[in-house]
């Protein structure tokens, strides 16, 4: 079991692809249940948790635009995909006994609350997990940028990005065997070297609001709680000393 949490409130960003499990698209119920248990473990540490989930397992806006679709339309379709993922994750987390709310940037009264900052803060103060769906509600912005925006609005102590690898590497560790893993990086270093942690607008927003970005592997059970306690393997992107 992990030790004492280093953060009082965190935003967890996970890609839609992380929910596919071994599949090529869609949702894997086993993977959803495992991530839900990880969220519950952090919630039980006393850390307030909110989430932003991508939609790439269902529809990716950029891919739609590349196929000849109007970019704004493709992005709105991607945002709707994130709502599907958010509802699935809400169901999985609530099955562990943790109360959860979905707030959508595109109003959908039948399935979610509208995004209201003060209400979201109140939910977390009352011990509920909040999932922010539909990105920023605007086309041309990624869910990475939405995560940095919501982390800033919520006053989060850190933005945790759960990926398939345990940190930021000098090259793709799947393709390059001797790729170097970084323990710590500065925001400007990530931007200037284009390390691909998140898109540039997300990094810039986190930098402006002094929110450290912690990159870790969401595929490892219990990894989320470890990282919240400063343990395990991860890369932290923060202010340059």
Structural account:
- With 241 residues, the chain is of the alpha/beta class.
- The chain has a single domain, classed as 3-Layer(aba) Sandwich (Carbamate kinase), CATH 3.40.1160.
- It is built from 8 helices and 11 strands.
- It has helices spanning 29-44, 61-66, 71-94, 117-125, 143-153, 187-192, 200-208, 223-228, and strands at residues 9-14, 48-53, 100-104, 113-114, 129-133, 158-163, 168-169, 181-182, 184-186, 213-217, 235-238.
- The strands form 2 sheets. The chain has a 9-stranded mixed sheet, sandwiched between helices.
- Strand 1, helix 1 and strand 2 form a beta-alpha-beta unit.
- The longest helix has 24 residues, at 71-94.
- The radius of gyration is 17 Å and the shape is globular.
- The model has no long low-confidence stretch (mean pLDDT 94).
